[in-house]
Amino acid sequence: MFYFIYGALVIFAHHEFSHIGNGIDISIPYSPIGTIGIAVAFYVGFKNNQSYDRFWEARKIWGGIVNYSRTWGNQVMNLVQIGDMTPEELAQTKQHLVYRHLAWINALKLQLRRPSSFSIKYEKRATHGLYRGEPGGEDWKKDVGPFLQDFEINVCKTYKNTATQLVKIQGELLKKLHKSEQINNFEHIHMMETLEEMYNLQGKCERIKNTPLPRQYSYFSFIFSWIFILVLPFALIGEFADMGHNYVWLTLPIYVLISWIFITMETVGDSSEDPFENFVNDVPMTALCRTIEIDLREMLGETDLPPKVAHQDGVLM
After folding, report:
1. Does some domain include residue 155?
2. Residue 91 to residue 109: CA distance in whole angstroms
3. Among 3, 111, 150, 263, which one has the highest count of C-beta atoms within 10 angstroms of its own C-beta?
């Protein structure tokens, strides 16, 4: 609507000024404005490329989390031996190792979705004084709590980085299993390497989360786009006026179209630069966590599984 009203005002002003005295021409040459448009398009395009790279890297990282989660489940089911445990204790130990991993992926998901002060989509999502993604919050109780034992839930509430500590607890349990000879040296090293890769993947996510796209790209791409949009109708008027007096009003639809395209390109980059903010264009971590949960719980032999996350209006969260 702004483009339509602004363009109409410029055309009306051009019409009125053209009838004053010998006529006052408020149009400006198109060549310099076209040059500005090309420069703005390159700048916005560069920002959009960097924004998409951040999103795609985040998606590849979560693809790695899916793959290593399946590897972890396979290792737990096939490398942990009965030793001096009963079959029931062995099954419980395997369930704890798998479930604690499910708690880790969900804790990581919630930590990554905590709002950042520098995010252009900054929003406080608080519940009773706690962010929903923090231990004790609503999402924590729903997504992480069911996979942890009661004492672990209480302990994890004290951690600043819960996901990190959950992997540490996994390592401590592997150490106990190694001492009790329920996994041998090679198996212990192999499973610890998988935990190491979990830390690597978590760290890569945190790097994207904690390092915003440089503000100069977001800020100046917005400023440059609006400078171009504000001066564009003055250049278009001259081009259409040369075609004839009655063609001047063609400036309006062309101006609206070009302005919409440029602002849309600007907005597309903004919507992709922070891929963990739980918005419609972000990495669908909820769906990925559910996929991992179904796969690993099937490895445990469970049949009462949750359904896959379905998209809503074409959006997968």
Report:
1. yes
2. 27
3. 111
In a domain, 307, yes or no: no
In a domain, 287, yes or no: yes
Closest CA to 131 of 292, 277, 273, 282: 277
Closest CA to 133 of 155, 118, 116: 116
For 195, the token pair is: 């935990």
pLDDT tens digits along 1-28: 788 887 888 877 776 666 665 566 677 8
Q: Do 277 and 113 contact (CB within 8 A), yes or no?
A: yes
Residue 200: partners with Cβ closer than 8 Å, 6 or more residues away: none
What angle, rounded to 10 degrees, do the helices at 185-210 and 30-79 form? Answer: 160
172 token code pair: 């401590």
Number of domains in the chain: 1
Three-state SS for 114-149 is CCCCCCCCCCCCEECCEECCCCCCHHHHHHCHHHCC
Backbone φ and ψ for 315, nearest 5 degrees, come out as: -115, 130
